[in-house]
Amino acid sequence: MENKIREVPAQLASSAYINKENYQTLYKQSIDNPDLFWAEQASQFITWFSPWKTVQSGDFKTLDIRWFIDGKLNASYNCIDRHLKERKDQIAILWQGDNPNESSTLTYQQLYEKVCHFANVLKNLGIKKGDRICIYLPMIPEIAIAMLACTRIGAIHSVVFSAFSPDSLSARILDADCRLLITADEGVRGGKKNPLKSHADKALEKCPNVKHVIVVKRTGTAIPWNQKRDLWYHEELENADAECTPEKMDSDDPLFILYTSGSTGSPKGILHSTGGYLVYAAMTHKFVFNYQPGDIYWCTADIGWITGHSYVIYGPLLNGATTLLFEGVPHYPTFARFWEIVDQYKVNIFYTAPTAIRALHKEGDQWVKKTSRKSLKILGTVGEPINPDAWEWYYRVIGNEHCPIVDTWWQTETGGIMITPFPGATPLKPGSVSWPFFGVLPLVVDEQGNPVEDGKVGKLIIKKPWPGLMKTIYGDQQRFKETYFKEIPGNYLTGDGADRDKEGYFWIVGRNDDVIKVSGHRIGSGELEAVLNSHASVAESAVVGAPDEIKGNIIYAFVTLKSGIQPNDQLKKELIQLIKDEIGPHAIIGTIQWAKDLPKTRSGKIMRRLLRKIACNELTDLGDTSTLADPGVVDDLVGERKK
Ligand code: WT7
């Protein structure tokens, strides 16, 4: 593992609020006296309609954690209204389409008007505080308007990534019992159309409680229309009132649900509540990116994931920033696209994923060298471990060795960034996520929950609550308890493996549960297996991750066919297509290995540890196989792998 330190350029350190001298002191204060610390942050970052009475209650044993108790606030008011006095003509959302010639802007005043209008559209359709609204939109300004309009009237948004299949969409709509769906005729990415409305139609066959569908006209293509149910976004907006008083929400009221994959079972609806989440999103955005008024800020994540929620929408807008929303992909029309956009809009802060960095690195420096990227001050990465090679390229070639890289570790569940360097304050180690954010107490422990020695890999846990932590899993408090707090009682279990070096730097190894990170997308092996097993020829399957140079991991599936069925390439194609259709094209299978049998313990549990080794081609040391019901199974699998 790399352990060399890259010093941060001094000119950046000078503008930072947090510096080498005060980080330790501030961190200590945040841990020793959290109530005082968070009270200060909450009043600095959020405008409250009425103040909270108690900063925090509950703990990881009782699991009834609340933040800023009895405080009243509204998310859209904090993201928009309160900025109008100072920055109504400043651009809030800078949008560039998939086609480089298509772009638009929304000032804070314009955003305010659209959000109020659309909030009234929702109200006119009978949407009330607490109702769930599903948003299935591509990366267009209307996705921000829709989210903020929900929060304005206290409705709970559930954004579903626009690449998800009809089945994935209907499962999410049903789980949250959404009342209304907002979608578009089509999405456009990398020059390709995505038939969102027809996916939505298909999904809704299973969702009788969705009474209305609001459709944004993105491409203008002809689409089937259900007169009783479907409404055009632009027509509804025209007829709606301009004024909409923001609903006074309790700090503990739900703000949104966002589905994410776990080890087992169906995706979990991660529920975030209002006060804690907003304080944490705003504060982390400001400090981690050293955001300064006037900065042009660009996070490339899709809003369908938590990074898009916290660092395309909520964090930047809470801080009154100009946030760039990009509809396209890094390789279209050419591999220079990201850097051309950086130059075009003079982007100062740029936040992306290792998989994008690696894919662009592979194409060579010539695409980058065509651009100046002089405006860049800070570079960020998130979603999976970044290998030191990719880090160095990002630092040297993209940032011209004058931008600190913030490698930020966090999760859908954590709401915001948890472990990260502070630009200007943290000497950087390529590949390490560095130090905990304020108020965050991470620890690396063994199976029993005892701290491991520095330098040893163990399970990453968090010892104390912080404001960004999810409230619960929607509709399933029991699953919330069991998933995150059962294994190491009294602590939040992240599901990641990590180690901490002698200088207190954290290094994330990767998931140590059955979640697979493919190009930064989080996919549960259980979901994949359920789809594979539904194929008429499949008896059983087990899916693990195998390392990949660009994607981080690929999906590696071991498939056992029903007796009498011969493995063949056509069947492989069918299975790959099945996953694409049932989950979405981001969940593409990398390898299928036919397995006569799967390695199981005598109690019938599949030994995934073994399968992971085989998928990774680590065939010499398979570890203890003595508990297997039939050790011969392993020889077959290894033999097949070597072929
Ligand atoms: C998982 C959470 C949180 C934003 C996007 C992903 C992995 C996240 C890093 C990083 C190494 C990382 C972890 C984590 N991860 N950031 N900087 N270095 N690994 O959110 O989809 O909920 O996934 O992403 O494995 O548990 P998510």
Quick summary of this structure?
The protein has about 650 residues and is an alpha/beta fold.
Task: List the SSEs and their pairings.
Layout: H1 10-15, H2 20-32, H3 34-45, E1 54-57, E2 66-69, E3 72-73, H4 75-79, H5 84-87, E4 91-96, E5 103-107, H6 108-124, E6 132-136, H7 141-153, E7 156-159, H8 166-176, E8 180-184, E9 187-189, E10 192-194, H9 196-204, E11 212-216, E12 230-232, H10 233-238, E13 249-250, E14 254-260, E15 268-273, H11 274-288, E16 296-299, H12 306-318, E17 322-326, H13 337-345, E18 349-352, H14 354-362, H15 366-369, E19 378-382, H16 388-398, E20 405-408, E21 419-420, E22 435-436, E23 442-445, E24 458-462, E25 472-473, H17 477-484, E26 492-500, E27 506-511, E28 515-518, E29 521-524, H18 525-533, E30 538-548, E31 552-561, H19 569-582, E32 589-594, H20 608-615, H21 632-642
Helix pairs in contact: 2-3, 6-7, 8-9, 11-12, 14-16
The chain binds 5'-O-[(S)-butoxy(hydroxy)phosphoryl]adenosine.
5'-O-[(S)-butoxy(hydroxy)phosphoryl]adenosine binds at residues 260, 305-307, 382-385, 407-412, 433, 494-496, 508, 510-511, 517, 522.
